[in-house]
Amino acid sequence: MTTNSALKTTLPIQLSAKNGHVILDNVLRALQKRFYSPEKLNEDWWAAVERHRPLIEGAVTADAFEQAMSDLLMELHTSHLGFFHRSARRASSRAALSATYLADDTPYGKRWIFQDVHSGGAASIAGIEPGDILLSVYGREIIPPEHPVFVMGKQTSVEIVGNDEQRGTVLVDVARPKGKNLHFIQPTLVEARRLDSGLGYLKVAMFPGMVGVEVANAISSAVEELGAVESLMIDLRGNTGGGVGALRVMSLLTPEQIPVGFALDRRRVTKNLDSEKLTFPRFSRIPVSTKALWPLALKFAPAMLAKKPIVLQTEGLGKKPFHGRVVLLVNRHTASAAEMIVAFARENELATIIGETTAGRLLSATSVKVGKNFRLALPTGAYYTWAGTILEGTPIVPDRIVEFDWRDRRAGRDRQLEYAIDHIRGIDVTQSIPQ
To answer: Which of 66, 87, 300, 432 is the most buried (most CB within 10 A)?
Structure first.
């Protein structure tokens, strides 16, 4: 990432070559011990380490060191890998703005174009809309493949071209101070409305929290408010995942308690997995209150201490009038826990999947201290569906592929949504899939 005076975020620490050497060694040891896929730590990886070592050990600022380490980790081509300072001064647009984008040719050259802009997030509050073209951040031009990075706790100037084809600058509050910490402006987690008398629409932006009590309750409340709809559209576009709260959406798809999947670290993968998985403990109920989290932790403490996998299982919420008439809307940014939902629906034939191929990013991860207040985020286990599919690196292809058309979106049309509505209503759309 290139920086200039308008984007000066250098952390107030200096690093020596010795510091860099020690931290790099700590990172390499952590990867050897815990990285979920040890076969990737092969000769090519170690050759990459030696190529990147001079820049890593020669970095004198925290920013330069963080960038050099991140460039090395990219050589593993794996999601859920990251290297950052404890202060976490910078963030991507996905985290900071609650927005996603894609790269394409525009009248202004190759540019990032906003695709998902979640209601209530920082980008939405600033007036950014899907289809807007990103020109610059902090007054500096951004051209793909370079990604914009935003300083937390700052009001950021973002130059865009809106649907009126006029260049303009909007001010985005990337994050707001909250006590001694910085708190992202969280988007509206759940939105619901009736599209007609019998069709309900439910959008979930993300699944925050490890257990997800808040988002699970919001999902249930939204479905209750929809009433007895005969069909349900669940919009997971731009949902980059989160925690167990995704189980509530899966539980809406079936009246029964059905096993969903589990995460395994590299030590647990055996030839007898099909029989062993039947002995794993099962999590099948998200509590209605955070007060129940401690008893829940005690219940699963023996399994967690033994590092035994825990199977997610749907909650058995009973029969719903929309069962058998559910559509999942997905796109290239649908990832992680949101992909668990899509895979579960596909394996059990519980919904029609419409939109773009998903991201193929689903691993269990943790972070470890590696020195000088730096942390390494690394994947420690692969997620397995109950049928045995590994989703990392295996994007899910929809039943009906409908690509995002940013030009149409700028004109006010959401063709993916339109297609899904027609499908639910039984209109023959096989000859009119947008390309």
So the answer is: 66
User: What single-letter DSSP state applies at residue 413?
Assistant: -
Using omega within 30 degrees of 0 as the cis cutoff, is the peptide bond preceding 145 cis? yes
Which pair of structure tokens corresponds to residue 58? Answer: 């020669």
Both 210 and 301 in a single domain?
yes
pLDDT single digits (tens) 177-206: 444 434 467 899 999 999 988 999 999 999
Q: Is residue 267 very low, low, confident or very high in pLDDT (cuts 50, 70, 90)?
A: confident
CA distance 11 to 61: 7
What range defines the domain where residue 358 resides?
A: 190-364+381-424
Edge to edge, what strands does the sheet with 231-235 contain? 190-196, 199-204, 231-235, 326-330, 352-355, 400-401
d(CA 198, CA 135): 42
Please state the three-class secondary structure of 215-282 as a single string: HHHHHHHHHHHHCCCCEEEEECCCCCCECCCHHHHHHHCCCCCCEEEEEEECCCCCCCHHHHHHHCCE
